[in-house]
Each structure stands twice: as structure tokens, then as C-alpha cells.
Amino acid sequence: MNILLLGSGGREHAIAWKLSQSPLMSHLFIAPGNAGTARLGTNLPVGVNDFPGIKAAVLTHQVGMVIVGPEDPLVNGIHDFFLADSDLKNIPLIGPNREAARLEGSKDFAKQFMVRHGIPTARYRTFGESDIEAGVEFLRSLRPPYVLKADGLAAGKGVIICPTLAEAESEFTAMLREQRFGAASMKVVIEEFLSGIELSVFILTDGRNYKILPEAKDYKKIGEGDTGPNTGGMGSVSPVPFAGPAFMQKVEEQVIRPTIEGLRTDEIEYTGFIFFGLIKVKDDPYVIEYNCRLGDPETESVIPRIQNDLVRLFQSVAEQSLGNETITVDPRFAATVMLVSEGYPGDYQKGKVIGENAPSGGCLFFHAGTTLNPVTGETISSGGRVIAVTSYGDTMKEALSRSYENAEKISYDGKYFRKDIGFDLGS
Ligand code: AMP
Ligand code: GLY
């Protein structure tokens, strides 16, 4: 079977790497892909939101399954597009439909869903431009810091945490009045700040059954010690030492199961991945957010730990027989260090020539923002996050030190990475 994978980041390179190990796959196409995925299949110059272009690619290349990496096409309804098209409707697409993807696409929808189904989350209220005054009043009833969230997708930038009431009031007003995040901030969620440690939990579901995948922790801030602005993610580790069996049982009972049951009660058909962004407050899990896809850079340490044939798992999602599968997890740690461009997440230069020596000793390189120079054939940088370095180890420390050793095998002008991934997890 030929497979088409949509996306172009480290997450997609990791998925492509895993798919390539399956005897069930004949040829892999990636749209648009990066210099790393080009080594595992054929990159197609088609954007993830170009549905007619995707249709043409599926038909031209006799694709038998489509896997969606990022959230955008899902929130934009690619699943619905396939189902509505007589040529595409029988081709399985892994990822939820538009309605189900609202769990990520609208914070207000997700919060209402959680409240309706008794899923633990921060207390909140949602406001539009016509009720700015009520919003300000609600802010005054909370204690600092204040959490403001644009309702819609804002490329990971729609959450603002304000230390003072004055700042919160002015940000809140600007988000609504000036639509600081475009249409995404037509509505703003104000919520209570939760204090704890975050982790990411993933499941794969066929709508009836679900399988819990290895959990991970990601590091979002650019600076060591979790300082400075947020990025797409500077590293990740899996497993998460503080998420022991008792805690994970609470996650399953209090979060995962009520989510699956809630979707069924609400008659929302959900197939694909659910990413639970959780925070552990004392010993209890709270949901910070849902995403309708895998996380990046969590995927780069989660996928290498899954020992199942990924194509087989996706087939059982399509056949609604995921209940027959058992997830087998590599007991080792996997740790990912993201190499980024100097200046990121602010302005940075692209087009830096990348030198890469083969990784060694249980290490993998997953490309993120890379591309092939069409003239010289050289691999060059094309994004803020450039290459993810993932290693296995019997301990987290061992996995991390392998990743740091191997990070030296990649060179480009302005290479930066955090040297303290996992710093808050002990050893
Ligand atoms: P989100 O885009 O919803 O993941 O939010 C981005 C980040 O903001 C999260 O990863 C948290 O670090 C932080 N955050 C969001 N909501 C809360 C909250 N209610 N309490 C504390 N931190 C939060
Ligand atoms: N690493 C967080 C995300 O993918 O949204």
C-alpha cells in the first residue's frame, strides 16, 4: 500500500521513519516533507491545506492511506473533504473530522466539553467583544497570574499569561478589541492559573477503542531553566518519571475515559490521535488543552519507543478493530534535543548549509526545518527548529548525554540548543 503523510516537521520525519519499517507499506509520499523525509520516500510540492492538490496526489500515486501530521488541515476539514468525495471516501484518512478537531480548534468548545463531561480543568469563562466589561470583572475575581487564551488556532501563540491585573486587563481588551490574533481572538477564554508540572499524554482511537501511547514531557521555552519566550518546543523526554502507574491510572480514569465517552455521548465521531496537554497539580491531572494530533517535539521521543507496526495500528483504526491490538513499548528512555536557528523564536535566517555526520550509538536525527537546495542539492535550514536529535538510554541521563554528543555531528551557522533538557526531572 502506498501512503501519503501530510506535514513537514520533525514530527513527520519521525512518523515517516516509523512507517518505513513496515512491510505493509510499499511507497511513502510526503507533502510537502523536508530534507529528512526525502530520504524515506518522495516529497511532493503540495501544501497541507491544498485539498484539491492532495486529492490529485492521492489519485496519481494510488495512495491507499493518508496520515495527517499537523492540526491545520484537520481543523479545516480534510477528513470531511475525503468523505464527501466519491473518489476519496474509501481511502482511510488518519485524523479527526472538522467537528471533532474543534477540541483543538476552539478553546471554548474544548472547555465546554470538559465541563459537560466532568473532566478536570481550570475554572474559566469565555467572552466576546460585546462583553469586555464582564470579562474585566471576571479577571478581578481571580488571583494572579492571569491566563488569557484566544479561542481559535493561533499557531501556538494564542495563550498569554499576565503577572498583574493591569496587564491582564489591557491584554484582554486588546485581544478582543484589536483582534490581536485575527479571527482566533473573536472570543477569549479567561481561566484560573494552575500551578504544577506539565506532561503530554497521547492516545490513538478508532472512535470506540483507544490505546494509550507513551507519555512525554516537552520543553517549550527558548532559554535554559525554562526562561524566555515560548517556542514550538526545544526538546522532550519519554517516559516521564513523575507520571508513575498510579498517576497514569488517574489520567485514564479521570481524563481519557470520560473524553472518549463524552465524544460518544455528544455523537462526535473521533478517529486519530488525541493529545492531552496535562498539568499535574499535587497528585491530580488537569487538562490544559486538547490537541487533535501528535505533539512536536514529543513525537520524536514517543514514536521511537513504540514497537508496534504503525501501519498495522492505522489499519486497525480504519477498520475500528484497534481493540485487538496491544501497544508494546520500548522500556528505554528516549530524549530529544532540538537544534534551532540563532534568533528563534524571533527573527532568524534561513538557508544555512547543514553538515551532518551519521548519528551513532542509539541516536536518530529527525529533520524539522530543512530543505534541499534545488540547485546544489545541499541540505539547508528552512525554519526555526532545524533538526531533532533523539537518543535511547537506560536512564534519562544516558539518553540525554547521547543526544548531546550526537548534536555535535550536525553543523550549521548559528546552531543553538538548550543544554538542560530534563533538568527538572531528576535523573
Ligand atoms: P496551551 O496553548 O493551551 O497549551 O497553553 C500554552 C501554555 O500555557 C501551556 O503549555 C501552559 O504552560 C500554559 N497554560 C495554559 N493554561 C494554563 C493554566 N490554566 N494554568 C497554568 N498554565 C497554563
Ligand atoms: N509540543 C507541543 C505541541 O506540539 O503543541
Beta-strand percentage range: 25-35%
Which fold name corresponds to the CATH topology of the largest domain?
A: D-amino Acid Aminotransferase, Chain A, domain 1
**Inertia-based shape:** globular
Tally of helical runs: 12
Could you tell me the mean pLDDT? 95
Name given to the CATH architecture of the largest domain = 2-Layer Sandwich
Structural account:
α7 packs antiparallel against α8. Strands 12, 15, 18, 20, 23 and 25 form a six-stranded antiparallel beta sheet that branches. The protein has four domains: 96 residues, Rossmann fold (3-Layer(aba) Sandwich), CATH 3.40.50.20; 70 residues, Dna Ligase, domain 1 (2-Layer Sandwich); 128 residues, 2-Layer Sandwich (D-amino Acid Aminotransferase, Chain A, domain 1), CATH 3.30.470; 79 residues, Phosphoribosylglycinamide synthetase, C-terminal domain (Glycinamide Ribonucleotide Synthetase, Chain A, domain 4). β7 and β8 form a beta hairpin. The longest helix has 21 residues. By secondary structure, the protein is of the alpha+beta class. It contains twelve helices and 25 strands. Bound molecules: adenosine monophosphate (AMP) and glycine. Glycine binds next to loops. The site of adenosine monophosphate has 10 residues, from β17.
